[in-house]
UniProtKB/TrEMBL annotation, chain A:
It comes from Leptothoe kymatousa TAU-MAC 1615. Residues 129-198 form the SUF system FeS cluster assembly SufBD N-terminal domain. The gene is sufB. InterPro entries: Fe-S_cluster_assembly_SufBD, SUF_FeS_clus_asmbl_SufB, SUF_FeS_clus_asmbl_SufBD_core, SUF_FeS_clus_asmbl_SufBD_sf, SufBD_N. This is Fe-S cluster assembly protein SufB. It comes from the Bacteria. It holds the Pfam family SufBD_N. Residues 207-449 form the SUF system FeS cluster assembly SufBD core domain. Belongs to the iron-sulfur cluster assembly SufBD family.
TrEMBL record, chain B:
SUPFAM superfamilies: Stabilizer of iron transporter SufD. Belongs to the iron-sulfur cluster assembly SufBD family. It comes from Leptothoe kymatousa TAU-MAC 1615. This is Fe-S cluster assembly protein SufD. Residues 18-169 form the SUF system FeS cluster assembly SufBD N-terminal domain. The gene is sufD. Residues 175-402 form the SUF system FeS cluster assembly SufBD core domain.
Amino acid sequence: MSTSVQSVVSQPYKYGFVTDVESDVIPRGLSEDIIRLISQKKNEPEFMLEFRLKAYRQWLKMAEPTWPNVNYEPINYQDIIYYSAPKQSEKLKSLDEVDPEILATFEKLGLPLSEQKRLSNVAVDAVFDSVSIGTTFKEELAEHGIIFCSISEAVQEHPELIQKYLGSVVPSADNYFTALNAAVFSDGSFVYIPENTQCPMDLSTYFRINNGDSGQFERTLVVADKGSSVTYLEGCTAPMYDSNQLHAAVVELVALDDAKINYSTVQNWFAGDKDGKGGIYNFVTKRGLCSGKNSKISWTQVETGSAITWKYPSCVLVGDNSVGEFYSVALTNNMQQADTGTKMIHVGKNTRSTIISKGISAGNSKNSYRGLVKVNPKAENARNYSQCDSMLIGDTSNANTYPYIQVQNNTGQVEHEASTSKIGEDQLFYFAQRGISPEDAISMLISGFCRDVFNKLPMEFAAEADKLLALKLENSVG
Amino acid sequence: MSATSTAVVQRDRYLADLLNQATLAAEGSSLSLASLRATARALVQERTFPSNRDEEWRFTDLSSMLAVPFQAAPTMDGATLAQATDLLQTLTLGEASGRVVFVNGTYAQDLSTLPPAVQVLSQTGTLPDELGQIQGGNEVFTALNTAGFTDAAIVRIGKNSVLEQPLQLIYLTMGHQLLVQPRCLVIAESGSAATLVEEFHGVGASFTNSVSEIWVHDNAEITHLRLQQESTEAVHIGKTAISQARDSRYRNTTLNFGASISRHNIEVYQTGTQTETTLNGLTAIGDKQLADTHSLVALNHPHGVANQLQKNIMDDRSHGVFNGKVYVPQQAQLTNASQLNRNLLLSPKSRVDTKPELDIVADDVKCAHGATVSQLAPDELFYLQSRGINRDQAQRLLIYAFAMEMIEPLSVASLRERMTQYIQQWTV
């Protein structure tokens, strides 16, 4: 029976096609000259070049971290192309001028960008290799004073906001990959929600790596001013190559007084084939700063792709009464490795955090939860509840939990619990009795296991996550 | 030279000095363990003295030790003997069959009454094959002990023999700036059963680095009580390594009250199926004490059961550390493992760092772990206050109850009584 469970979760990757477009590619490798070239190509102001060079010099002094519970061949940083963009002669006035090949790509991924097809009420910023292709609903959002554009555009048009917030949550020298990202980041999304504004629609970025030799280094910055709220979604896919590609992104969220940010990710980068060949190295730093009173940041993630995932979406709860949440489903299969979790740093008074993490490991994969809950000496009445459940499918996959709990204030209350389980024969038998095939039964059991997290996803994304898991589960019971 | 590399050189030199003192002590003893010692010495030479940069020592800062040049202990003089005699009077276990006393790592014949199951290495001279053979001997402090211990208690419980009376082993560390390395080897042959009480006490600011190896063979049962009540100026680093064969049962209760810095590494290695392992621990500390418990349960065979409950109470500016690892590899199907760590922070300056770890490959298992940190529950205090118990008394009552969960099940009545009294005084 366990072989049927095994085959049910092993599905081909549907987004593995390559789009044939002419690219503007810079030479391989990394040096100060390359960074100057990137900055020049993007026509950046002086402060950005300084920001990049400073980060690069720090990166040179740092060592790649070895503590995550993942194994991979050393990365040759001089063999990566740090900038790749679809060729375009001049600045586009509207999305209709975008290369139809690229529009077709996003269409194929289920994201119609062209004006007439935009039916759903979601504004999308589409990032193809290193650059933003287009942002939808820009004008509608501008009416509310909301800025939603690519980060390169923001550098040109809103330099004061960029200078104030870029690197304020994740400093360049935070870790090896953030320094690398700060030095070479090519594009990403920027969101600013003004005071007392509820963003009228969900905002979304879709990342697509197309070039086989390029890395993707994007940067997302979301600032929610006092009393505002926003829901932000992020999706990722990549073609199938048999070489590994590096994705080192940085996401920074800032929530001022009474602001709320919901940030959801469905990550489905190419995971490599069943022998572990190819796939994306997803080394991402995501951090939210609840700087204001009563602010709230909520991370929801569904991680199904990437050969290696190494990410810890975190909340720094500085404002009094601020709230941090982390809901995660991580599914690993074949040779995939995931070391993921969260950090909740309680700094302000009466801060609260919740962590719900569901790990599913199948095949020969490795799935680790690594989390930190830290209560600083002055964080009176901090409260944390953490729950990490693992589900093992087959006896060759690996589920680990490494929760770090550090409490320096006695008024804090911290609880952590973890469990492991598997899909039992008796459960499948129960379903079979009622005429439900093992395939559907497993799908339902996994869906039920993940329900706490899926419930937190916005409507559109919940549907996508369900589809994604269903995809991993379709037509395979022999 | 950068500040970090200077620190590394300083730690290396410090470890070399410790090793020299250990070697000096070893040369002074009559034991002949040349090859065992040489291997251990080589191991220590390869290592550096741990710092906060090592994951295993991240929260336990040993840098204050670097200022203290610990020396090999001299032979016991009359004053120490008198002091030790006084101390021992408070440690009597009525039920025990004799007692084995080591003072500063050396067997104190005048203070001991050897039960038949216990021998002392310096007297028998024959080296048991099992000595130094349990996994985990590569760890720097364990190797340091092997390189320099001056004597060892050898407890051998014969096949199918059941000892009704507990065996009491007392290790005293008396004096200042001494490096003291007690050693113990327990072999419970198949079908045997015994209760072992190990106690660590002392006066003065010395460094005790102990190692106990326990072999629990097929169907044997060992109940092990370990009490650490060293002087509050002392440093205590202890290793308890257990090898558990098929159908064996091992129950441990570790009580940590003393020392300014203490670390207990308890490691259980399963070598057969259907073992039962129970690890209970209570740490109660105050002032600026630091107490660190690192446990490892490595299950390698099916049908193992492991239960762990570690309770820590931190008062004043004290700092508790817990790290519990449970390994369940592919072959350990049908394992049932649970681990719970509960921490009580009594004062605003107290602190705890805990990390319960699970590492699981086998899929047909039941594994769970949990950790909690809090102060006394306000509603519990209110409940007691509403019944006319003043706040102060109510607090004491709740702390007492929290601790007694670990003390009450102690199987040796006189030790249970002594510990109950200790907790009552501690909560005042």
